[in-house]
Structure formats: structure tokens, C-alpha cells
Automatic annotation (TrEMBL):
Belongs to the glycosyltransferase 28 family. MurG subfamily. The keyword Coiled coil does not apply. It catalyses: di-trans,octa-cis-undecaprenyl diphospho-N-acetyl-alpha-D-muramoyl-L-alanyl-D-glutamyl-meso-2,6-diaminopimeloyl-D-alanyl-D-alanine + UDP-N-acetyl-alpha-D-glucosamine = di-trans,octa-cis-undecaprenyl diphospho-[N-acetyl-alpha-D-glucosaminyl-(1->4)]-N-acetyl-alpha-D-muramoyl-L-alanyl-D-glutamyl-meso-2,6-diaminopimeloyl-D-alanyl-D-alanine + UDP + H(+). Residues 6-144 form the Glycosyltransferase family 28 N-terminal domain. It is found in: Cell membrane. HAMAP family: MurG. Cell wall formation. Catalyzes the transfer of a GlcNAc subunit on undecaprenyl-pyrophosphoryl-MurNAc-pentapeptide (lipid intermediate I) to form undecaprenyl-pyrophosphoryl-MurNAc-(pentapeptide)GlcNAc (lipid intermediate II). Keywords: Cell cycle, Cell division, Cell membrane, Cell shape, Cell wall biogenesis/degradation, Glycosyltransferase, Membrane, Peptidoglycan synthesis, Transferase. Its EC number is 2.4.1.227. This is UDP-N-acetylglucosamine--N-acetylmuramyl-(pentapeptide) pyrophosphoryl-undecaprenol N-acetylglucosamine transferase. PANTHER family: GLYCOSYLTRANSFERASE, UDP-N-ACETYLGLUCOSAMINE--N-ACETYLMURAMYL-(PENTAPEPTIDE) PYROPHOSPHORYL-UNDECAPRENOL N-ACETYLGLUCOSAMINE TRANSFERASE 1.
Amino acid sequence: MTKHKFILSGGGTGGHIYPAIAIANELKLQFPDAEFLFVGAKDKMEMQKVPQAGYEIKGLWIAGLQRKLTLQNMMFPLKLASSLLESKRIIKKFKPNVVIGTGGFASGPLLQAAGSAGIPTVIQEQNSFPGITNKLLSKKANAICVAYDNLDRFFPKDKIVLTGNPVRQDLIDIDTKRDEAIAFYGLDTNKKTLLVLGGSLGARRINQLIEKELQNFLSQDVQIIWQCGKLYFEDYKKYNQPNVKVVDFIERMDFVYAAADVIISRAGASSVSELCIVGKPVIFIPSPNVAEDHQTKNAQAIVEAKGAILLKESELDAEFSIVFEALLKDDGKQKQLSANIKKLARPDATKVIVEQIKKLL
């Protein structure tokens, strides 16, 4: 039997890295003797997270374009040329059967080089509104795995496969883990738990909101797991107390989801897909600072299915405390949001994506 080789590329944020790792893990289950190589951007978090997951990674000298004129932007053509050359070298040496891109700066040059070398490529697009890189790469890709309907506006229709986004498999049976999770965080089983997620780096505006509302939460007998992000941990760790657990990064996502009764979250595509599987009441506060306002569009897709509440950053001061208190007091509303968001879950997404990859072998 021939030994298969796969290159995966995705990075910059957890939202691109974890789907790539989930796909690699599923491929490894089905092809135990396969060889894997990840390609990322040199100074981004994938350079730590991928080796922690047990895979080798090579870094490209690449970064995205900034929205204003900067030295970074002037360096972009040089970085792109360098990354394309390095990608060609990597592909020539490793000789992959299939190359898979999950988004992020490095996947652009890598998939471009793979396509030019005649190697089959798969794009995994997490968002309801694709970025410019994937739109360009889609013309040569063999398959485009998507998580939302109506993406034929952006991609060739005959290549699109609706799969959903890959998620961690340990999220599928969290209902059995609540007591263990509450004990793990030293919390009280009789209190409602609010989980605050700002993404792997943290979200300044959400952190400011939680700081402002903290006494209000505690007065309503709510306990909090507050993931403030590594950029902000030094500023907010002073709020750690028996009913408030401030953390920079969460290793056991299954535990925090199991402990949560209500969740406040950004609306990155991977987070949204996980929250559909978790099926808890969610208040989305999308980041307004991402390309093409992806996060608002991701959250709106859930809100239209009556599966979540959406508050824009500009609405927080006027509306947040009213909306939160109303949700906390209304068990019926909580159950309705849970039931509706769960209907949108695609727990088999990773397996379906791997089936598409296998067709190209």
C-alpha cells in the first residue's frame, strides 16, 4: 500500500489552526502510516500550537496587508515572492499527494505553488463571507469545503461541498462533564455560570465590558469563567476571586463549555461552529475589525435561525445589561436559543471533509 503524504496550511489565529489540526487528526485515524507537514507564518501562533499537537511545521516569511500604508505593506511583494519560492521548495522536497488550506497568510503561497505543480488542493472556507486569498485560490482548487450556504457567489459552484467546519471531537458529549468541569474550576454547582470568550488573543472591548459589568453579574449570583486573552491577562488577572476565574488561554474547551449556562463570544467561524455543537444560549459580540466584517455575517446567520442574540460593540453601553438580565431570568428563552442553535450543528464535518480529500488520492 502506498504511503500517503499531506501538507496542511492554516494559521494566524486559532480559527485557522484548529480546523487544520482536526483534519490532520482525522486523516491520521484513517491513514495511520501517512506523513504530515504543516506550513505556517513564521511569527504566528501556529509555530507553537502545531508542534504541541504533535506535527512538524515549517514557517514562511509572510504577513497580510495592513489597511493603511505601512512599512509592512511595502515589504509585502518581497515577502510574497520569498514565500512562493519557499513553498515550491517545500512541495518539491516533500512530494505531497494533496495540499489542504484552512486560511491564514501562509496558505495563499502554498496552495498557489501546489496548484502550479499539478498537485490536488482542497480549500476549507470557514466563513460565510470568504477572504480575498481563498477567492483567488478557488479557481485552481479541486474542492472547496464550506460551512455556509450560498457561497456560489464567490466560488465556482461545481467545486463547492457543504461540509460544515471541523471542530474538536471532545465537544460532542459535554453534557456528561458538567460536575467535573465545575469542580475543575472550583465553582459552585448551584450558581449560573457565564463563560466569556474573546478569541485566542483576547478582545479589548469585551474585556472592558466584563470589567464594567462585573459587580452587576455577581449581584445576580452569576459566577464567571473569563478568557481575557494573552494580550490582556496582566490587566485583568487582578479580578480573580472565588466566583471569577480569569484565564488567558483555555486548554480544556470541553470543560468550559460543559460548565457554562450562558456564553458571551466573538463570532469567528470556528467559534460559531463549536457553539452550534455545544448548544448553549449565546450572546455574540462580533469583532468589527476583521476583513469584510466576517464576524457580523457569521453571527447573523445564527440569529436569522433564532439561535443566538447579536449585540454590536456600538450597542453595548446602552443595551448589554438589559439584554443579559432578560436572558438570565427567562429559562424559556434560554431553552429556545439552545434548541435552535443545535439544529445548525454539523458534528461530522471533519469526516465529510476527509472524504473529499480521499477522492483526490
